[in-house]
Design goal:
- The complex is a heterodimer of chains A (about 350) and B (about 675).
- In chain A, α8 links the parallel β6 and β7.
- Chain A is of the alpha/beta class.
- Chain B is mostly beta strands.
- Chain B is built from 10 helices and 36 strands.
- Chain B has a 22-stranded antiparallel β-barrel.
- The chains are: A alpha/beta (about 350), B mainly beta (about 675).
- At the A-B interface, α3, α5, α10, α11 and α13 of A face α2 and α3 of B.
Amino acid sequence: MNLTNVITQTASWQSIAGLRSVTFHWRGVVARWRTALCCVIGMTLIAAAAALQPGRGIAVIYPDIGEPYRGVFARIIEGIEQQTRSRVPSFAIGANPNMQEIAAELRRQDIRVVIALGRNGLKFTSGLERDIGVVAGGVLSIPEADARNISVHSLAPDPGLLFARLQTFMPAAKRVFVVYDPKQNAWLMRLAREAARARGLELVVNEASDLKTALLIYQDIFAGADPQYDALWLLQDSTTVDETSVLPLVLREAWGRNIVFFSSSVTHVRRGALFSLYPDNVEIGRHLANSALGYLSSGGQGPRGMVSLKAVRLAVNVRTAGHLGINLAGRQNFDLVFPEQ
Amino acid sequence: MTRTGIKLFCALLPLAWTGTAIAQPLVEEDLAMAYGDKATVSIATGSQLDLRRAPAVATVITAGDIKAMGATDLDEVMETVPGVHVSRVAANYFSTYMIRGIVGNPTNPQVLMLQNGIPVNDLYRGDKGQSWGGLPLENVARIEVIRGPGSALYGADAFAGVINIITKTAADIQGTEFGARAGSFNTRDAWVQHGGKLGAVDVAAYLRVGGTDGSKETIARDRFSGTANPSLAPGPLNNGYDAVDAGLDLAYDKWRLRAGYKLRDDAGTGAGIASALDPVGREKSERITADVSWSDPRFARDWGLGFTGSYLHYLEHAHYQLFPPGFAAGAFPNGMIGEPSRDQRQLRLSAFATYAGFTGHSLRFGAGHDDLNLYKTGTRKNYLLTAGAPSNDLAFNGGAVVDYYDRQSHILPHRRKLDYAYVQDEWNFARDWTLTAGLRRDIYSDFGGTTNPRLALVWDASLNLTAKLLYGQAFRAPSFTEQHGINPVADGNPALKPETIRTLEAAFSWQARHDTQINLSLFRHRTQDVIAVVGTAFANTGGQHGSGMELEATWDAGRNLRLTGNYARQRSIDDATQADTGLAPHHHAYIRADWRFAGGWLLSPQVNWVAERKRAFGDTRPEVADYSTVDITLRTNRGTKQWGFAASVRNLFNADAREPSLGNPVYIPDDLPLPRRSFYLQATYSL
C-alpha cells in the first residue's frame, strides 16, 4: 500500500467522522499555511533582490579580447561574484575605450574600487579619479613605481609553493638555480629568497639584462649542476627566457644531464619541464574580491604592492618524471598531465 | 540544394569580413606567458585528465578537434582516425568501422564500443547495434580510439580496436549552452546542455532532440532488378530517423552517477534489410544506461581503489518489408513482412585496485562480473524460412503477419554470465625503459574461458623520441545471433569458440621540431577461428593475416595555422583463398588545415582520400572506385554570454563516393552511394 493511498483513506475517514468540525479546522490550517507561505515567498524575493543588487561598490574592468583568454576573464569574474555574493558590474574595454563614458558610469553606480584585469585593464584605470581604489589582476608584473599605490595580484606562481612542490618530487634537493631580469622580477626574487630560506634550500640567483647573457649563464649552470641536489627554475621573464634559444637549450641539457627543471610557465611542461603551477581562475577571482572588499572595509587603506599567485593548479610531465626516476605513482592529484596520450 | 548552399555561404561571408574589420588587436602578453598558448589553455581550463596511461597505439580526438572538423556525428570523426575507414552495409546503411583491414560484414563486432569505459555493444550482433542511428557529439568531451587488441584490459570484442566515448562533465561545460542546427536532407537538431553546481554536487545535463530524412541517394539496381520478382529499384534510400539523446552526470567527492538515454525512432532500413529496397520499413531502438562509480586514487598509502556498477537496457523493435508486394509470383500480395523485436539488459559490476608500493612497479588489478540477458524476443512475420527460399506459409494463419515465437522465432531469449579478472604491471626497469605486462582471464557461462595477454615495451629514446614495441592477443565473443540465431540457412551454433587475434606493433612518436609532431606505427596481425556461415550454420572457420602502417603528422605552421594529416595502408590476405580479403581500402589519407583569423573565426577545410579497394573473393565486379571528398567548416566562438556560429559543407565537389556492397552473392551491383554535397548551419548561445 503506497503513501498516497493511506493519506486518501485517512482524509475520507475524517470527513465521515465529523464533517463540520473538520472543515472549520482545515480552513484555519489552510489560512495559517497561506500566511506562512506568503512570508516565505516574500523573504525569498527580498533575499533574491538583495542578491541581485550590484555589489556594493565594486566593478571589474577587463580587456575585450577573444578566446581563449576571454574565458579566463569570465572565470575570474565568476570567482569575484562568488566571493562578494552579488552581481558585479563588468566593463569590457576595447583598444579605444571611451574614458568619460565609463568613468561617468562608475560614478553613477557609486563604484569605489575597481578590479582591473590585464595590462589593458590596468592602463585604463590610470585615467580614473584618484579616490577610486584599484586592485589589479591578470598581469605578471608591473613597474615597481606603479605598484606602490595599488594592490597587484600577479599571475606569477608563489615561489614558496613552487619550492614545496619541488621538495615533494625531489626530497634531496639542496640548490635551486634561477636567472632573472631585475627590471621585471626583482620583487619576485625577494619573495623567493625568503621562501628558499624557510624551506632550507639555497637559491642561487643570477641577474641578466639581455638574452645573450642569460644563455651563457644557463650554459654555466648546466656545466656545474649536480643531478642529485640541483634543480633549475625557469621564470616568466621575457628577457631571459625565450622559445627559440633558451628553452631548447634547457630542454636538451636537462634531459641529457638528468637535471630537474621546473617552470613558472605551464607551456614548458608540455615541452618537457617536470612541473609547473598555473592559475586557478575562479580562485583568483575570490582573492581579488577579498582584496577589493578589504579596501572598502578599511576605508581606502589596505595592502599595496605585488602579491604572488597562490591560487594554483599543478601540471606535471610524467614522461620527464619517468626519465628522472621520480616515482609518481600514488600521487594522482595532478590537475594537468603531459604528454596527453 | 546547391543554390541554398551558395546563398548560405554568401550570407556568411560579410560576417567574416565584419569580423575581420571590427576586431582590434588587443595584446595581453602576460596571459600568454601565464596560461600558455591556445592549445594549453583549452586543456588547462578544462577538467582533470585520467592518469591511467596504458601504452597502446591510440588517437585522442578532443571536443576542440570535433568542432574544427565540423563533425556532427561519430562516423565523421572515425573516418579521420588513421587506420580506420567507415564503410556502409545495405541494411540500415549501418556504419561499419573497418580497422586495419579487419572487416565485419555485415555486422561489426570486432570493435568494442565503450561509453565512459562501460561497454555498450548489443548482445544480439555483438556490435554497436543495428539501430545505432548515429551519435551526436555536442556532449562528447573526448573520443579515445585504440587501434589493435585491447582484451587484456577490456575483454571481449576489443579485437580490431576500442572506441571510448567520454561524455562531458560539469567542468567541461561550465554554464549553459543552447544550440540548434539545420541542414540538408531536412536534418534538424536542437539541444541544451548545462554544467554547474547544485550545492556540493557537480551537475552536467544534456538533452537533444533531432531528426533527419536521410540522404535519399538512388539505388539503381537492387536484388530483384532484372529478375522475375518485382523490384522497387531504381529508388531512394530509406535513411531517416528521429532522435532523442539525454545525459545526466552527477559528481560528489569520490562518487559519480551517470544516466543516459538514446532513442532512435522511425529509423529507416537503408537499402533494405535483405538488399531489396524497402521504403516502408521502420525501426525503433531505445537505450537506457545508468552507472555509479566510486574511486579514490589515494585510498591508502600506495593504494588506489575503485568500483563501478552499471546497468544498460536496450531494445530494438522493427517492422520490415523484406521483399516488396508481388514477391514470389504473388505469394506475398502485401510483401514479405518481418517484425523482430529484442529487449536486453546488461548488468556489470567491477572493481579495481592500484598498488605502487614496489619501487619501479605500478600494478593494477581488476575483477568483475557481467550478467548479460537478452530476456525478451518477439518474431511476428508472415513467412517461414526453409533451406530453400522463404515460403509464404499459407498453412499457418493464411499467410498473415502473426506471432511466430513458437513456430520459428528469429532468436529465443538467452542469458550469458561472465566473470573476469586482470592484472597489469608497468615496470620501469631502467632509466627511460618501461615494460608493461598484462593478462586477463574471462570465464563465460556459455562458451568457456579465454586468457589474453599483452606486452608493451616503451623506450624514451631521447627528449624528442619515444619508441614502443607491442604484442597482444584478443578475442571476439560469439554474438547471440551466431550462437542461437534460428535460420535454416544461417543457423546458430552454441558450440562456437571465440575468434582470436594476435598483433605485433611497433610505434614511434617523434617531436621533430617544437611545432611538428610525427607518429608512425607498423603492425602485423593474424586472426583465427573466424566465425562465418559454413553450409547452413555458423562455424569457426578460416582466418586472415595482415600488415600495414599508419603515419600521422601535426604541424603548427604559424600562430594561426595548424595542419593535421595522416596516411594509412594495409594489406590483408584470407588464409583459405590466399586472396585479398577485399572491401577495406589499401590506402587511406586525410589532411585538414585549421586556420584561425581575426575576430575568433576558424576555417577548416579537410580532404579524405580512399583508394584501392579490392572485391571479396568470388566477386567478379571491377575494383571499387577510389574517391576523395572535400569538406569545409567555418565557425566562430566568442565564449560565454556569446553567440557561436558554424557552417559546414560536406562533399563540396559532389564526388560520387561509394562503399562496396556484399559480394557473395552480389545483390546491389552498383554499390552503396554516400551522400552527395550537403550543408548545415548551426547556432549556439552560451550563458
